[in-house]
Write a structure and sequence with these properties.
The chain has 311 residues and is an alpha+beta fold. It is built from four helices and 16 strands. A hairpin with a 4-residue loop joins strand 13 and strand 14. The chain starts with a helix and ends in a 5-residue tail after the last strand. InterPro entries: B30.2/SPRY, B30.2/SPRY_sf, Butyrophylin_SPRY, ConA-like_dom_sf, PRY, SPRY_dom, TRIM/RBCC, Ubox_domain.
Length: 311
């Protein structure tokens, strides 16, 4: 009963304060309140001669509407639960075999509650810093340990066990072995980069793949050398190219260690890019950064850990 009550309360928070219906194409204002895109535009059109303000808190705000695809996806899941055609009856869940319809609905509601709870009570932004002792010798880590760029090889660096000596990789200082964590990285106009997480035991001295089988869960932007770039989620399968609607300038990385999820977002509008599921972590993982080589004089910008806009 407690979970059902909490679920109803959270679902009520998915209601647009203007039309009193579930959000449709939800957008967020500078003040942090959400509205249907059509609703807020109509509100402002009615008061065309007045300064723009939030209909809920009345604070003045610029007419900048940031879509929230994470909220939209959550609402779609909520709607799916009300449709018996998508209740999941007879569908296999994991390796547990066939589930009865009632069991499946309960199972789905549990996951929806978790998703809603995660949205309205997101993980605290994790303070991530870079560990210079892991950095490839051509990587220069800033004194504050929040930025890394490619440069000339640094002489006389110790070949300590933690250091990557074959690839342009540096790891974060923080080891995660439980909980949910979120951080953002400014990639700007770089033409190539790699981000994600890496297991503590990854090979740092020899040839590797940036895939889960070698302990990496990464998303990369690759420069093709002909003026174009491509995005790829480095899965264990061969076909994992991504086609974002626009190049993200800031990337959000979300880690749920217990559920084995590593998700990537365009932090500008929280548009979902890719999620690794069922990672089944068996050891701590570290944030992963790869600023990629300088190609044809391009890609000199650093990767910089930044504070999320909504914090």
């Amino acid at each position: 009963m407690a979970e059902a009550s909490a679920l109803e309360e959270l679902q009520s928070e998915l209601t647009c304060p203007v039309c009193l219906e579930l959000f449709h194409d939800p957008v967020i204002l500078e003040c942090g309140h959400h509205f249907c895109q059509v609703c807020i535009i109509q509100c402002w059109e009615v008061k065309a001669d007045e300064l723009s303000s939030c209909p809920k808190c009345r604070k003045s705000c610029a007419r900048k509407l940031r879509p929230n695809s994470l909220l939209r996806t959550t609402i779609h899941r909520a709607l799916a639960l009300t449709d018996p055609r998508v209740s999941g009856a007879g569908r296999r869940c994991g390796g547990a075999g066939l589930l009865h319809k009632e069991e499946t609905v309960i199972h789905s509601k549990t996951h929806l509650f978790s998703d809603l709870n995660s949205f309205y009570h997101p993980p605290a932004v994790t303070a991530v810093t870079l560990d210079p002792d892991t950095a490839y010798p051509c990587l220069w880590v800033s004194p504050c340990r929040t930025s890394v760029r490619m440069g000339k090889i640094q002489p006389d660096l110790p070949n300590n066990p933690e250091r990557f000596t074959r690839y342009n990789i540096v790891l974060g200082s923080e080891a995660f072995s439980s909980g949910r964590h979120y951080w953002e990285v400014e990639v700007g106009s770089k033409t190539a980069w790699g981000l994600g997480v890496a297991a503590a035991s990854v090979n740092r001295k020899e040839e590797i793949s940036l895939c889960p089988e070698d302990g990496f869960w990464t998303l990369v932007m690759r420069d093709n050398g002909n003026g174009t770039s491509e995005y790829e989620a480095c899965t264990d399968s061969v076909d994992s190219l991504l086609y974002p609607s626009k190049p993200p300038r800031r990337v959000g990385i979300y880690l749920d260690y217990g559920r084995g999820e590593v998700a990537f977002y365009d932090a500008g509008d929280m548009n979902h890019l890719f999620t690794f599921n069922d990672a089944k972590f068996k050891e701590p993982v570290f944030p992963y950064f790869n600023p990629w080589p300088i190609i044809n004089g391009c890609n000199r910008e650093p990767l910089t850990i930044v504070t999320p806009h909504w914090r």
